[in-house]
Amino acid sequence: MLVVQEIFGVHAHIQDVCRRLARLGYLAIAPDLFARQGDVSRLPDIPSILPVVSKVPDAQVMADLDATAAWATASGEGDPARLGITGFCWGGRITWLYAAHNPRLRAGVAWYGRLSGTTSELQPTEVIALAGRLKAPVLGLYGGKDDGIPLESVERMRRALEGAGSPSRILVFPDAPHGFHADYRPTYRAREAAEGWKQMRAWFRANGVVSRASADRA
Question: How many domains does the chain have?
Fold first, then answer.
């Protein structure tokens, strides 16, 4: 299971997500996808982090995730036939991109990942443009009160997926803000986080991303 970080890097929350997935029997790996551009763990706030993140090319991220999956296979602990990905915020967008990139991916779950907005030479693609090019089904988990991701863009993505005949789907929690799964932030919502986790597990089971241990354990 590839686990993709928020803009804050592979910090305690992302490490905890990996531990929770590991207890379910998954080989959960969160590669440090900003390592070449800077150590965001040493930066004090979002305004100082964003210039680092803006220098991270999408192509580099796709290659690093491919390399991580290849390492997992070579280790003998990972099964390439049951590859899944989940990501949060910045990593939510990357989850959608990776589902359009890797034909061997079985499924993805994107937590409140940006769907539209400013593009650049290094990040040239809006997620909405990929609706008809996804190679694996993605479950998008979004908050209806997300100040950073307009509900209008979420609905546009839903329509684009439906128009493309994609098996991917969008689930909106009407009262949830951005970051509702992040239990270290004031935006955390325990009920929606628990339901999102339940939906994530069901999505992976339904799409063949099952661990070698029982997926119902822990």
Answer: 1
Catalytic residue among 18, 89, 101, 181: 89
Mean pLDDT of 150-162: 97
**CATH code at 123?**
3.40.50.1820
Our answer to whether residue 79 is catalytic in this structure is no
Concerning whether 181 is annotated as a catalytic residue, the answer is no
Query: Three-state DSSP class for 36?
Result: coil
Mean pLDDT over the full length of the chain: 95
Any catalytic annotation for residue 18?
Answer: no
> Would you state the pLDDT for residue 211?
76
Which of these is catalytic: 13, 18, 101, 146? 146
- Residue 146 domain-assigned (yes or no): yes
pTM over 0.85: yes
For residue 215, count CB atoms less than 10 angstroms from its CB and return exposed for 0-12, middle for 13-18, buried for 19 or more: middle
Range of the domain at 164: 2-206
Across 1-40, b (16+ Cβ under 10 Å) vs e yields bbbbbbbbbbeebbeebbeebbebbbbbbbbebbeeebeb
Has residue 81 got a pLDDT over 90? yes
